[in-house]
Design a protein that fits this description.
Length: 147
């Protein structure tokens, strides 16, 4: 039960519809924090690509049912006398928010970061898992009917 939101995505979509593609002089660029999300058994797995971001530049917060991921991609330190010729990689602070359903256990979220990939594992809450309900018969009712 994950929902994602990007408040500017609709504006971009509308601009592309109005201009018949991308606006003149602009190009469509991917999100600086692309993600995949899927359910695997009793947990949701959310994977973010964050190349060039160090683990200490990633911040995860959960407030109520909103998970916020912030990451800062800092410029590379250039040696003295080196002049940048092309700089196309996005720099700065990027963030994404996921609205987590009430059926997820936000107290037990696990995060791992390896080779520029942030993986979050969000378990389904115990009360949301399907369970078998047993049916009991009253103690004073007969168990068998004699014919």
């Amino acid at each position: 039960m994950l929902m994602r939101t990007d408040p500017f995505r609709e504006f971009d979509r509308l601009a592309q519809l109005v201009t018949g593609g991308s606006a003149p002089g602009t190009w469509s660029k991917p999100s600086p924090m692309p993600m995949d999300a899927y359910r695997s058994g009793d947990e949701y797995v959310v994977v973010f690509d964050l190349p060039g971001v160090s683990a200490d530049a990633i911040d995860l917060d959960v407030e109520r049912n909103v998970l916020t991921v912030k990451a800062e991609r800092r410029p590379a330190a250039l040696a003295e006398g080196v002049e940048m010729q092309v700089a196309e990689r996005p720099l700065g602070v990027f963030s994404r928010q996921l609205f987590l359903g009430d059926t997820l256990d936000t107290e037990r979220i696990e995060a791992a970061y390896d080779n520029g990939v942030l993986t979050l594992r969000i378990p389904v809450a115990a009360q949301a898992k399907p369970r078998k309900i047993s049916i009991s018969a009253p103690a004073d009712s007969p168990q068998q009917i004699d014919a």
